[in-house]
Each structure stands twice: as structure tokens, then as C-alpha cells.
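Obj: model holo form, ligand = 6-O-phosphono-beta-D-fructofuranose.
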Amino acid sequence: MKKVGILTGGGDCPGLNAVIRAVVRLAAQKDVEVIGFQNGWKGIIDGDIVKLDLFSVSGILPKGGTILGTSRTNPYKNPGDVQKLIATYKKLGLDALIAIGGEDTLGVANKLHNDKLGINVVGCPKTIDNDLSGTDFTFGFDTAVNIATEAIDRLHTTAESHNRIMVVEVMGRHAGWIAVYSGIASGADVILIPEVPIDLNEVCDIVKKRHARGKGFSIIVVAEGAEFKAGQVVTKEQILDSFGHVRLGGIGEILAAELEKRTGYESRVTVLGHIQRGGTPSAFDRVIATRFGVKAMELVLDKKFGRMACLNGTEVNDVPLQVAVGSLKTVDMKLYDIAKLFFV
Ligand code: F6P
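Output (holo C-alpha cells):
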């Protein structure tokens, strides 16, 4: 192993720089050169590179975002892009490629591996949504949960002062992990997730019961991908990214309006949006991101391609990329049952 490429794809996430730093630092000790690709798969298609050394990764551990930039470019979308990607890989004389991403970015990595195109790829599990299979946690999730929890704590005091229903919309496209963790942590009165269709009557009943026993306010946490019973995903715009995902956001607004109409209580909505993805990673995320980066580099050195670093309990291991992207890791219903005990 002499030369390794690295890229960050999909939505940015706290901890990406910690992974890059870990890879570069370990590589330097093994005399391996690291080439960074700018803006995800787009960078390797376009040959947009930056050399990474100890100097370039100095001081980036606590920085949010990614020093490499990111994009939602899917090389399998446009004919010819995969060939361009292979050409860059060969021209640079790379021995391996480390892809840091979620289901889409690692889906591409897995396809490149399965298509046997001569690209030696390993993966690192990133996403605030925590919905990748094969790993107990992805990095970025803990930070997002902490940000959402603090925001909900703050909304609690204003909800209480004004006797309002506060609807808080958090991220979570297909899985409600952020909603469930931040909702439990902040004592939300109802938590609504994509895995369970929203029953408006049930939500109204809970709110009314609270009022009847003298609680003049309620906190409702809703994941952006949650849907009403027998309804469609609520979206503001029907813009699709190159992986075919609609841009979400809007369920909170509709929910707050419906609750106000049906209960008569004043309702407000706060959409946390990208605030959950920005800024410095939590200590937990810095540690697992660093451990994932070390593992990814070890997989490269051991020539264990087509695999992803993962966390099982407290141990960092590796799983086939196929396992990671084969199915979505949705919310553990035993955990959701615990959350529901507090919907009173
Ligand atoms: O996948 C992570 C995520 O933050 C989702 O929760 C959210 O739906 C999506 O990315 C938002 O993507 P973008 O930043 O492209 O709007």
C-alpha cells in the first residue's frame, strides 16, 4: 500500500474531519500517501484532488463539516462517470479508496466493489440519521441528538410560559433515531417517527388529557420523514437529488396547524434543520470517528476491501459494505415502546 484516496459524500456531518485526520495520521506512520477528492464522488469523476499530509489535517479534529467538501453526486447516474472515476483512480496510481458516507455514498462504494472494476474500496459509516445497518452507531448522530436535546429543553421553558403546543421537527429521512433519542432525553410528550404513521386523534387525545390535568403545554417531536396515517410524505418541494430523494421538511408546520385546529390550543413549530448537522462534534463522535478512521486505514493495509468499519457494542469491527447498505436500520421498537410510556 503506497497511495490511498479518500472522499466524503452525502450530507455533511460532525466528525468527518476527525475521520480524515485519523486516516492521514495513521497513513503517515505507514509511509502511505493520501490523496483527498473534493466534493464526494464528483471529485474523483473530475479528478479534483488535494494532497493530504500531517500539516493539512492539523487542527481539524473539532471542526464541523468536511475539509474535503461534499456532494450528492451519484456516478452511476450519468453514463460515462464511472469510467471517468476509474480513469482518475488509475492515473493517480491509487491502491485503495476510503469512502466516508451514508447509505448513498456507501451504496456506490458497494456497487464499485461488486462490479469488480479494480477499485479497492473500504467504507466509514457517517450519518446523523444513524440508519446504516451493521453498526450500532454512525458518527454524527450523537452530536445531532445533543443539539436537538438542548433545543427542545429551551423550547420546553417557553412552551410552559405561554401554555402552547410546541412542535419540534428534527431530521430523520427514513428513520426516527434522532427524534426518539432527543425526545426521550428532553422528556417530550409525544415523539413521531417515519416508522409509525401519525394518528392525529391519538396525539390530540394525549394533548387534551395533559390540559385536563393542568398541564397547559405539550412538546411534540416529529421526524421530518414522518407521515400521517394513510397519507404521503409531506414535502415543501418536490426536488429530487441524484439518488432520487425528495427534499423533506414541512411535516412540523402541517402538524402544528392541525393540532391547533383540532384542540383549540395555540401551537407553534420549530424546524431544527441543518443546525443539527453543523458545528463541532461531541466528544463521543470525535472518539468513534477517530476509531472508524483508524479501522478504515487498517482495512486498507490488510487489503480487506469491500468492507466498512463498524461499532458493535464498545468494539470497532468491520462488516461487508453489502450488510451496511442492504437494508435500512430503522428505530428499535423496544426503544420506541419505552418512549411511548411517557406519552401521557
Ligand atoms: O441524511 C442526512 C440528512 O441530514 C437527512 O436527515 C436529511 O433528510 C437530509 O440529510 C437533508 O439533506 P440536504 O442537506 O441535502 O438537504
